[in-house]
Amino acid sequence: MSCCQMPERENRPYTFLRLTQSTCPECLQLVHTRVVMESGRVYFLKTCPDHGASKALVSEDAASYQKAWRYVRPGSVPLKFQTAANKGCPHDCGLCPSHQQHTCLPIIEITDHCNLSCPVCIADNKNSRHMTLSEFKKIIDRLIEQEGYLETITLSGGEPTRHPEFLKLVDLAKDRAEIGRVSVVTNGIELAHSKKLCEELKKRNVYVVLQTDGFDDAVHQKIRGRALCGIKEKALASLAEYDVSTQIIFVAVRGINEGEIKKAIDLLLAHDHILSLMIQPVSYSGRGGAKFPHDPLNRLTIPGVLKILEEQTGGLLTAGDFFPLPCPHPLCVTLTYLLKLDDGSYIPFPRFLDMNKYLHLFEQSAMLGSDTHTENAIKTAIDDLWSAKGEIPDNQKVLKALKKALLEMYPPKTITRDELMRVTERKAKTVFIHHYMDRHDFDLERLVKCCHHYPLNDGRVMPACSYNMFCRGTAL
C-alpha cells in the first residue's frame, strides 16, 4: 500500500441513525438497540443475550421518520406522581417522576366482559368482573387530583356497554365539572340492538368511538372473528339518527384491509356527526395481537398509511397534509384537520396554514381548543390568508369558512365551555394516524412521552404501550 492509499472501510448495508432501548421480541427484556436506515426505511437492530439478534421495521419512510424528530417539544408533568423511580423505566410505570408527559387521555377499562373475541384484540377479556361504582369514583378522584382538569376520559373494556351499571358510571363522570367530555370505545353490537342506548348517550352528550375496520364481512371475520357489516351499519344508522358525536377507529392490517381505508375517509366526510377518523396500524401486542400472524419486516407504519391515503383519495389527502403531533411523541401520532367549505368540500389545514406557526396549540393536546389561544390563531390565519390573496387555491372560500367559524365559536354572547367545545369540534374534521408500539418497535424514548394512560384500581396510571406489553398476561 502506497503512502497515498487509504484502506477500504467496511461497506455496511445500512446507515446508523441513533441508539435507543427496545425489547427482545421473545422475552421482552430491554436491550440496547441500533436505529438504522436501509433502502429508505428505518429498522431496529437488536441483540438479546438469551435469544440473539432480531430486526424489525419501524418506519416505511426514513425521511418522514427523521423529520418527525423536529416536532419534539417538552411535555407537561402531572400535578402528582403515583410511583417512585427506583428500578428504572418501564419497571416503575405508574406514573413515576421519570415520565415526561401528563395524562391527556385516560382510558378506564370498566369491565373485562365482551361479546366478541377479536383475533387482534390486546385485552385479556376473561368475562370475570365489572368495575364497581366505588372503584370508578376513586379512579376519577385520583385522576382529577393528578391533572386538575381532564379534557376527555374514555370508558373501555372489554365491551364497556356490557357493564350492568354502564350509564351510572357515565353519570358519575359527567357530574364532575373537572371533566370536559366522556367517550366510550365500543364494537357497536349493543348500539345496533338498542336505539334506546343511543338516545341515552345523546342525552348525556357522550362521544362514541366505534370500531369499524372495514366494509366487507371477510375483513371483519379475519380481524374481529365474526361477520359484522350488518351490525356496523345498524349502529351507524342509530348514531346518525340521534346525532351522537362519533369517532371511527380503523385498525389497519397489512394484507387484509388496507384497501378499504378510502371507504373510511368517505364515511367520515359523509356525516356531520362523525367528527374524526383514527387509523391505527395494528399493534402486535396483548392477548390477541401478539399471536396474530405477522412479519415484523413487512408491516404497516404511519408513512405506509399516508402513502395509501394519497393513492386511494386521488389527491384529496396527501402525505404533505399531515403533521406529527408533539403531544405525545411525534413518532406516535400524525394528523390533519379538514376545514369544511360552504360548497360541502373539504380542504386540509396545511394547504392554507403554516402549521409550524401553530404547533404550540398541540404541545399538550390533539384537540382544537376553545380558548383564547385558538381564537387568536384563527384571527392570525385570517390575516395571513388576506395578505396571501391569489397564492392559495380557494383562498376566498377558505376565508369565508374561517370567518364563519370564528363568529360561531366566539359569539358576542356568553356560552358555556361545553357549548363552545361542541361548536368548535364541528368546524373541522380530523384524521389521526396513531401507531401504538409492540414488542418489535418498542422505543423507550417514545414511552416516556406517552399521554394515553390506563388508570388502575391499585392507584397506578400506566402508559398505554407499557401496560399493553408488560402487564397483559406478562409480569414485569
Structure description:
Helix 2 (133-147) packs parallel to helix 3 (166-174) and helix 11 runs antiparallel to helix 12. By secondary structure, the protein is an alpha/beta fold. It has two domains: 15-66; 71-322 and 429-470, TIM Barrel. Strands 5, 6, 7, 8, 9, 10, 11, 12, 13, 14, 15 and 16 form a twelve-stranded mixed β-sheet that branches. A four-stranded antiparallel β-sheet has the order 1-2-3-4. The longest helix is centred in the C-terminal third of the chain and has 16 residues, at 372-387. The model has no long low-confidence stretch (mean pLDDT 88). It has 15 helices and 16 strands. It is globular.
Secondary-structure map with pairings?
Layout: E1 15-23, E2 30-38, E3 41-48, E4 52-59, H1 62-68, E5 105-109, H2 133-147, E6 150-156, H3 166-174, E7 179-186, H4 189-193, H5 195-203, E8 207-211, H6 217-224, H7 229-241, E9 246-252, H8 261-270, E10 274-281, H9 286-289, H10 302-312, E11 323-324, E12 333-340, E13 346-348, H11 372-387, H12 395-409, H13 417-425, E14 428-434, H14 444-447, E15 452-455, E16 461-463, H15 464-470
